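Subgroup meeting minutes
Present: P.N., E.W., G.H.
Scribe: E.W.

1. P.N. recapped why we're keeping a running log of single-chain structure predictions: easier to compare across weeks, and new members can see raw inputs and outputs side by side.
2. G.H. added today's entry (199 aa).
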Amino acid sequence: MKVCVYQGSFNPIHNAHIEMAKYVYSKLEFDKIVFIPAFIPPHKNSKDFDYNNAIHRLNMVELAVKEYPYFDVSAIEYTRNQPSYTYDTIVKIKEIKNTDDKIYFIIGTDAFLKIESWYKSDELKKLVKFLLFVRANQFNEKPFYDLYLKGYEFMLMKMPFINISSSEIRKKIKKKENICDIVPPKVVEYINQNDLYKI
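Output recorded in log:
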């Protein structure tokens, strides 16, 4: 069974997230691409955790993917009141799907280069095949080859780089700049209705 997941904060989800998932679906044979919003992102200070933000992020992902029958959303990380470690999530997904196959995992090259610092990284690499998207206009192969030699299995996705980030979107909203060209329409509407990222 080939299972592909896209885990992230999605704060907020934007068009590059959608295009990356569409690209994977068009190139590889998956029944579904499963978006998994992080409930408590592990790189955030738990004291700064915002429950309302977590719920809004989940709602926005559900709105963004609703029109795509080959996308799905899992709230699996919302069932555990603890940091959303990828290793724990992948183990749970493998149990649910009852599969011994590796789980395909969409990730940007910038995050992948930090993979050895992730929780139980040595165990995670045995469970996952990473689908890498270049997050810059230049690509240096050496550090990725080093990770390959350490047992991290990956495929490089050749989609052109789309220069959009969630942090950029939050800044634009604070400055009252237009985000309609980089965020799905239903998500823009949700952000406006709930006055998100204004402060």
